[in-house]
Amino acid sequence: MSPDELVYLGILAASIPVGFLFRHLSPPIKQGAALLLGLTITIATCGIHTLHSLCTVLGTWLIITFNWRKAPSLSLGWTFLYLLFFRLATWFSLPPPGPFANAIQLLLTLKLVSLANEVHSYHSEKKKDVSSFSKSPVIGGLSHVPSFYDVISYSYCYIGIMTGPFFRYQTYADWLRQPDAVSLPGRDPCLLRLKMVPVYGALFLFANNLFPLSFVRTEEFLEHSYFYRFFYMVVVFFVFRMRFYAAWCGAEAGCISAGLGCYPQGALSKPGGGPTVQYSPDPGAPVEYDFKTIQNIDCYNTDFCVKVRHGMRYWNMTVQWWLHHYIYPNAPFRAYALRAGWTMLISAYWHGLHAGYYLSFLTIPLCIAAETSMEASVRARLGPSGQKAFDWIHWFLKMRAYDYMCMGFVLLKASDTLNYWSSIYFIIHVIALLCIVIGRVMGGGRRERKKVSEGEKETKRDDTVREKAE
User: Fold this and answer.
1) 169, 114 contact by CB (below 8 A)
2) Do the beta carbons of residue 289 and residue 185 sit within 8 Å?
3) CB atoms within 10 A of CB 122
4) Which band of pLDDT confidence, cut at 50, 70 and 90, is reported for residue 468?
5) Is 256:190 a contact under the CB 8 Å cutoff?
6) Is 365's pLDDT higher than 50?
7) How far is CA 119 from CA 55, 116, 323, in A?
8) Contact call for residues 314 and 302 (beta carbons, < 8 A)
9) Is the dihedral angle over the CA atoms 213, 341, 462, 329 positive or is it negative?
10) For every residue of 182-201, which 3-state class applies, written as one string?
């Protein structure tokens, strides 16, 4: 492990016992202590580059204070433009930010855009209440406009400050106001989340040692057989998954120990978004709690779900919620494939400026179009046993598609990514295009368009529910 990874591991490990201590603090002390600890971590790991995050926070606070009506679009523009400046700092004769500053900047961007949308929703609902003389039932809405201290405290809260998961300001505010945090579940769900972390960590170290990524960039790698080169991407994605499974499960444990994102199961919480329904348990009735609001990874479904589109739902789940809620509905296109492509483009930009991100993320819409075409033209015509066999093949190709796209994500450079993809003859692109052609030839075009239309209607219904939840 690199020194940076050891620092990440140390911060994750320390956050778990510290979280249990925070359960004993009163709201004002909890807020101040979480801010102080978060700032300490930021300054200790980022140094002078802490000013980047501070400028981003100040700019967003000014936007939500003086122009709440346009805050969602202005905050998105401001934070994303600052990301560009942040990544091109050397062009302005500034020292390049390190990986810790980059991690904090990425998560801060999500938080501040979400905060601007929450403030906009608060003012909009308040305006409706005044005009209609009635209180509208807003689920998870703000009770007041956050002060500058609130914004700073939320931005630099130590929980997940550089590891995630993303959580909304309302989730943070609910955490501060928990009436009896000590009585909420903590130890058992925390241990449950940590149970597989040693296994993931050991598998990561073992496989990464046997199959180093750097070997892909050598001439010697190209001398191996096609099947060896193809198999290498399978192992690379396995290493990639084990690394993030361990990190995100540990990050979730840090949230659980502090009680962040703990809501009654009846609230039907969503990762990233929080409760989706109003829930008031009967007096005296036992209440079951969960931590779905801060769940960032579903390891089992990531590996074993069948479709490419479903795989995205179980990976980095809180960020997927953010993309689905703030980016996808505002895409400048109506067609599902184009809106998905736009969302993937924004996601690639958020991750960085490396060409490998864009090559990988923009391959996803092609894979989605291929699987949609084959489902409409082939699977729909099969019997139960045929559909089961189809799903197994679909799952296998889904995993290989993610293996393939992962190479762009880790190699980063366009030349390295394209060199590797060409060494296996762009196999996933070829298969995806063949599936689309086969679907068209077999008459799946009409069924595909119908299925896409139904998918768009379902997405609109989901968006409506989410807007009401806001």
Assistant:
1) yes
2) yes
3) 21
4) very low
5) yes
6) yes
7) 19, 5, 18
8) yes
9) positive
10) HHCCCHHHHHHHHCCHHHHH
Instruction: Please write the tens of the pLDDT for every residue from 88-140.
Output: 999 999 999 999 999 999 999 999 999 999 999 999 888 776 555 444 445 66
pLDDT at 133: 46
pTM of the predicted protein model: 0.91
**Which pair of structure tokens corresponds to residue 353?**
């400026």
Q: What confidence tier does 450 reach under pLDDT thresholds 50, 70, 90?
A: low
Give the count of alpha carbons within 13 A of 86, CB side only. 32
pLDDT computed for residue 285 by the predictor = 78
Q: Which of 230, 233, 240, 232 is nearest to 203 (CA)?
A: 240
Residue 268: what pLDDT? 93
CA–centroid distance for 10 within its chain: 22
